[in-house]
Amino acid sequence: MPTSPPRPTASPRPSRPSSSRRGQLATPQDRIVLEPLTAEDWPAASGIYEAGIGGGNATFEPSAPSWEQFAGKCAGYPALAAHGEDGALLGWAALSPVSQRTVYRGVGAVSIYVDPREARKGVGRTLLEGLIARAENAGLWTLEAGIFPENRASISLHEACGFRHVGVRERVGQMPDGRWRDVCLLERRSSTVGI
To answer: Quick check: 35 and 85 in contact, CB under 8 A?
Structure first.
């Protein structure tokens, strides 16, 4: 497994107190702060994206886009950064439109990436739950995710957050090295928006 790139130095952010409630133990999620993903976050976010690319089971893309390309693709849709108490970027998630047709205005495609060093610490779940809430607040009624079948962790995360399997798109795309890959299509329909 390739080593992940060094974590870019985060810009200084004020430390945040634990949000644990009186009489309860703090959970890992209490130490994760969700904020809008910004250009300031992008150097660290693109490093996390590149780590996902290096793992081989995250995306067909050969490299991370520039901030301008990313922001253009996701314009008008929620994008979140998960920061630790020290301000370091732990992961990010964003939605992009699945189509420019008006009838699909309430359908967003999910992208979610977690720093490999932060895997299994609640970052992905916190991001995906936050993205779902913001999507519904923005009037989106369906979220979809295309995930390689080999990426069991991502499939399990989406299932835990209410996504269902729609099907498998067989040999739907080629990796940069020419290998054909299947993609599992998962979907989450809101129970509050567009009903």
So the answer is: no
Q: How far apart are CA 113 and CA 189, in angstroms?
A: 22
Residue 75 lies in a domain: yes
Residue 39 token pair = 């250009």
Distance CA 38, CA 43 (A): 10
What digits encode the pLDDT tens for the residues 47-63? 999 999 999 999 999 99
Answer whether residue 24 is part of any domain.
no
**Is the residue at 170 inside a domain?**
no
pTM higher than 0.70, yes or no? yes
The C-alpha atoms of residue 56 and residue 133 are separated, in whole angstroms, by 29
Q: Is-contact 190 140, C-beta < 8 A? A: yes
Range of the domain at 119: 29-143
* Model confidence band, residue 195 (pLDDT cutoffs 50, 70, 90): confident
For residue 103, is it within any domain?
Answer: yes
Residues in the chain: 195
CATH code for position 107: 3.40.630.30
